[in-house]
Amino acid sequence: MSNPYDALGTSAFWRTAVAEKGPLGLEHLWTPKFHVRPEHKIVTAGSCFAQHIGQALVERGYSWLDAEPAPPWVVGEDAKALNYGVFSCRTGNIYTPRMLLQWLRLAFEGGDTELWEAEGRWFDPLRPVIEPNGFAHSDELQSARQATLASIRNAVTEADVFIFTLGLTEAWRHSGTDFEYALCPGTIVGAEFDEAVHCFHNASFAQLRDDLEAAIALMREKNSALKILLTVSPVPLVASASGAHVLAATSHSKSLLRAVAGELAGAAEAIDYFPSYEIITHPVFRGMFFAPNMRAVVPEGVATVMRHFFEDQRRVFGEVVQSSPGKRRKKNKVRSESDVMCEEELLNAFAK
């Protein structure tokens, strides 16, 4: 007597797909819905791990879209320190779906937010560390923000693929306006923490889903051909304000983000999920891709993630014509000069 399991392939069974393969022999972890080609304009945004994805695409000769390049006189490490070339737009890390939605609404619908001033310098609460010493004037800050909002509009309307890495559920918001901050006020220069104004928010599944759905809908309203590729950062929380142990808080946060990404990807052909999170964090891999602090992802882990990305793209869609080796070497040199930038790391300073 036949049953539905008779027709399933080896990848559907733990023994044949995992136990007999071992962690380094796993294959076919992803069946991509759409082809990501080298000539496609690809935007990366989100949590720290998105920087690895962007860099790997550049190294392979893919057309990573740098929508807000540094001025000609700002180069190398100086450009990176000012958050140029880190993501497709100079937003800094975007850890939550709400932050992504805020940026998109400001870019396409306009609006204002508070600005921070400290000791005669001005800081942008959307991205307070892009100018380490702050801006000299509020007008300078506003001008820089408008440049980034213009780059977001261009990136969304020009892109073929938008890769977004979900990072956190925990955030801090203004109690009156519901504005979400990039970092908790008071943990960085620019603003003092005020418990009457600044409130902790740990987003629920429904809130995360609704915000991400709204963000994707807004992008596809402006660019109906845009494909969305979601990933979840495997990097644990630096700290949790939830009251839970940071390990349990990390599992809670990542589980919700993974579930949201899976639900949205399962509901639309233009949205896909790539399992970079599973490749780094699953017990099958025995923690081998984490540095001794059990948080940072080692280069071998990043390489394994991207190997699965490119191999599964090739398996489903066939070989692609890569850019010339000379072009790839040049881009690789530019993108590998410095380490990943992660604003959340600043919370380490408050560990007792």
Automatic annotation (TrEMBL):
Q: Which domain of life is it from?
A: Bacteria
Q: Where is the GSCFA domain?
A: 41-309
Q: What is this protein called?
A: GSCFA family protein
Q: Which source organism does the UniProt entry give?
A: Lentibacter algarum
